Amino acid sequence: MKISELGDLLGLDHQGEEVEIRGVAPMESATSDDLSFISEAKWLSRDNQAGALLILADLADSHSAQLQQLGKPVLLSQAPALDAGRAGLLLGASELTVSGIHPGAFVDETAKLGPNVSVGPGAVLGAEVQVGADTVIHAGAVIHARCIIGERCIIHSNGVVGADGFGYEFVDGRHQRIPHLGIVRIGNDVEVGACTTIDRARFGETRIGHGVKIDNQVQIAHNVEVGDHSVIVSQAGVSGSCRIGPGVILAGQAGVVPHVTIGAGARIGAATGVAKDVPAGETWSGWWGRDHRSNMTAILALHKLPAFMKTVKAFMKQHGG
């Protein structure tokens, strides 16, 4: 497809010469037949063989001289990575997808499925499950009894929605299992990654809001509430009865202890342990977690400690200490 035609279909401005594009590729492997994308200025100075570039429009304005040196046709975008994916589809690439109800899936006769729901091989939908329109449930995923999935959701392979939570009481010298009688309710436009688990509530509901994106291998415990459009990244773990506000980001391997509230728009850094409530809009990091600026100050001080100790020892030696 000509780059100008691709730009028209994507609604993007085209600058530079006319070339034909056959595919989309990352900068490191792109050839003269490929479109690649740039979202950060550092990539402007790196060699690449791409035939054309999708570039962040603001970056094109602020680094116009560097862009001219590259000498490549460009499409100006507000979201280059997203538009690169869309370009790939227009050029004939295909997404992982499921169409219809696979004969190898098990769907309980009491489950209610909206129009255009797709269920992959080996997936299991339990009794009284409800699934909204245009939702895709990939191979091997399990939706346990009575759980509710919204519209336009994606549940990736081996994801488990509605398993019992990890709840016990130590009574009479042993751990006795607490019954989990609630459900999981997932809003619209939610994506649940492969091997992620979302536990059913003890009572009531574990709730995942609209537009939430959950990566692979995430654990969300019983009675957790996740606000709209939050993002939870791979291997993060959220303990029972936590409240996560809208627009929150939990980076990879972050861990949250039970009954914690994380305010709207907060950002929790990778491998951060959250042991107390996080105010809205704050960025936390470290173990245990605290305000990111304070944590970085403490880390810097710790790195300076060996040199400081040498100075102290030298001082004490000079003064007979």
Concise overview:
This protein is α/β, with parallel strands linked by helices and 321 residues long. Helix content is 18%, strand content 28%. It has a ten-stranded mixed beta sheet, covered by helices on one side. The chain has a nine-stranded parallel beta sheet with strand order 6-9-12-15-20-23-26-29-32, with no helix packed on it.
Features:
9-stranded parallel beta sheet; alpha/beta; 321 residues; single chain; 10-stranded mixed beta sheet; flat
Descriptive account of the structure:
The protein has 321 residues and is α/β, with parallel strands linked by helices. It is built from five helices and 34 strands. It has a ten-stranded mixed β-sheet with strand order 8-11-14-19-22-25-28-31-33-34, covered by helices on one side. A nine-stranded parallel β-sheet has the order 6-9-12-15-20-23-26-29-32, with no helix packed on it. The longest helix has 27 residues, at 292-318. The N and C termini lie far apart (79 Å).
